[in-house]
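Our platform keeps sequence and structure together, in a single record for each protein. This encoding replaces a full spatial description with a residue-level series of whole-number codes. We quote a single record here, exactly as it is kept in our systems:
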Amino acid sequence: MTTPLPRPHRDDVLIAAAGLLGGLVFWAIGLHSQSGRLLSGSWSLLPLCVMSAMELLRRTAPRTALAVAVLALVADQFTSGNLATVLMFTDIMYAAVLYGTPATARRIPRITVLLTIALPLGFYAWLRSPDALLVGVGTGLIGYAPAATGLLVRHHREAADTARLQAEQTALLAEMDRTQAVIAERSRMARELHDLVANHLSAIAIHSTAALSLDDPKTTRDALGVIRENSVDGLAEMRRLIGLLRDNSGDQEPAAAPTLAGLDALVAQARTNGLDARLADERPAGERLPTPVELAAYRIVQESLTNALKHAAPGEVTVGLTREASALTVTVRSPYGDRPGPRAPGSGAGLIGMRERVALLGGEFGAGADDDKKVWQVRAQLPVAERGSTA
């Protein structure tokens, strides 16, 4: 089964019809491109019709159209000639370079240059007349000029396509960057929300369970006091965070991030919530570290104390800070084992958040029970990119 030829483009049909109509008008009024040829009269209409038919293939089959058009142009030289035939040949030459394969677009201009040089030299050697040089002018006008024009337009189109592709790729990369930025911001917000609220809600859950399970007025009163304190503090922190998220005016200064200077208050609050916590800060007095390091360390201690409040067995919880030459090491040790009394449920998001914070700073994180299964230890090593200044 043969493959049908593609339908001609609408513009090609219009060009072919205009060329054929113009050629018929030239023939009817007796306007010929040459005289004294072997074939005269209506013979010039045959190359005209063939050239017009090839115009239909200028876009869909440019190589075939050019090959047949060359034969038609040669045949036209043996007739009285028609200007429309020559003009349509130049258009087919232009289209062959513009719509042909890349190899064809490279070869045709080179061939036309060689013909523009070789034909006048050959005719001059044969006729020994300077008029032979006009053959080179004619060959350049109907051959090289349209081929060079087609090559120039093709290069411009390819450059435009390349620029458009690069613009699309840039837009795609920008969209990917935007998506990654949104995901990263959502992850950061999730960590901040978890660290802000989990400690207060865990204390509320544990003390409310104790108040409901123990029929002791003093215990109930103490539990309600802790619940109220954590409720007020948690609500205040939530309002502050929501206010920061809603404010897009840029007029307000950003809220100060928690620092290691606030660890004493954090440990004191843990003791208020019923946790036997102690801080062992072995850093040089007054040392200040980069803000991202201090924020990550603070949040790791905060989440570790929250986990100890929810899951640790009775006993002392120790928070340790040590400073080496290039890193800050945070260690939180709590008793491991079954705990009596109420427990708050856990989702594992706290450990994930701590691991993400350490990974963002390029540090090392570990959490688990020791070999004796008596102590649960959280250890984070945070690289310090710059030396903190001392106050």
The mean pLDDT is 82. The first strand starts at residue 277 and ends at 281. Residues 133-213 form the longest helix (81 residues). Residues 51 and 230 are 92 Å apart (CA to CA).
